UniProtKB/TrEMBL annotation:
Record has Lipoprotein as a keyword: yes
Species for this entry: Streptomyces azureus
Transmembrane segments: 20-41
Region described as Disordered: 58-101
Name of this protein: Lipoprotein
Keyword Transmembrane: yes
UniProt keywords, alphabetically: Lipoprotein, Membrane, Transmembrane, Transmembrane helix
Superkingdom, taxonomy of origin: Bacteria
Length: 287
């Protein structure tokens, strides 16, 4: 179901020094999450303060709300397309590799797509991503993509501003971005509220980081725009954790891929396959 029109703005950490066009500003909320995480509310929520007192929403004189993009005809994409054509095809494992019994038990039985994010170690911002598709023979892997996660690595108890990505299994139901819908089967919210500027932790420009995003359902309400700031577990548990376009450095809590790979992922994810993301450092995932 398409998202409704939203008026949105962001308040981001000073370290990112974002540049937000004045036309985008309609409401003001305090947010935490990605490298300059976006968050938003519907105009009807303007008078309601952010959850946990993290910020207050106030109406502005004008707004240029994000709009739901009319979706072009669906196309299918094989995330293995970017793999080395000369490489041999690995055997299809009966179960997802690198995961221990505790992690495997958290994956819903109906899941037929798994985005597996494996961090180098608990305190590293480097990780690898593989999209697995469940078939009659087992879990068929796609290509292996390099990625970034949060600056300080991973945590089992994510808190707003801790600069660590949450470890766990989370559903993937909603997408969006500054650019037009590339043809994903996920609901897609497109608009100028996904604009970001400034620089990241290593001085790299952040512009374009939110060209494509997929919301990770950590402390958020599924079925809403990635910009929705609802935090069911409270503001202190953070939120706004996304898959988004890599800007060449660590994120605040998100996972980032190259623009090409984000587009491939958007085209591959299918709500009918109940996609989830399994994310964490390698040692934690083996539990």
């Amino acid at each position: 179901m398409p998202f409704g029109t939203r008026a949105t703005t962001f308040t981001r950490p000073d370290s990112y020094r974002p540049v937000i066009p004045a036309a985008v500003l309609a409401l003001s909320v305090v947010l935490a999450g990605c490298a300059g995480t976006a968050g938003g509310v519907r105009p009807a929520d303007a008078a309601r303060p952010a959850a946990g007192g993290a910020g207050a929403a106030s109406a502005a004189a004008s707004a240029a709300p994000g709009t739901t993009q009319a979706r072009p005809p669906r196309t299918s994409a094989d995330p293995r397309a970017s793999a080395d054509p000369g490489a041999s095809t690995p055997p299809t494992p009966a179960r997802l590799p690198g995961l221990g019994p505790r992690t495997l038990a958290e994956i819903p039985a109906e899941a037929r797509q798994v985005v597996l994010v494996t961090g180098r170690d608990k305190n590293s911002s480097a990780s690898q991503v593989v999209l697995y598709r469940r078939t009659g023979a087992g879990w068929e892997p796609g290509a292996t993509w390099s990625a970034h996660n949060a600056l300080k690595g991973w945590t089992d108890d994510h808190r707003a501003g801790d600069l660590r990505s949450p470890i766990g299994v989370f559903t993937l139901t909603d997408a969006g971005g500054l650019l037009a819908d590339p043809g994903t089967k996920l609901p897609y919210d497109q608009g100028p509220a996904f604009t970001i500027g400034g620089t990241g932790f290593e001085g790299e420009p952040l512009a374009g980081s939110f060209d494509y995003v997929v919301a990770i359902n950590y402390n958020r309400k599924p079925g809403t725009s990635p910009l929705d700031w609802t935090r069911p577990q409270g503001a202190n548990k953070g939120g706004g954790i996304w898959l988004h376009v890599d800007h060449g450095g660590p994120a605040q809590g998100c996972v980032s891929l190259t623009k090409k790979h984000m587009r491939e992922l958007l085209l591959a994810l299918d709500p009918a396959r109940h996609p989830v993301i399994v994310m964490g450092d390698a040692a934690s995932l083996r539990r």
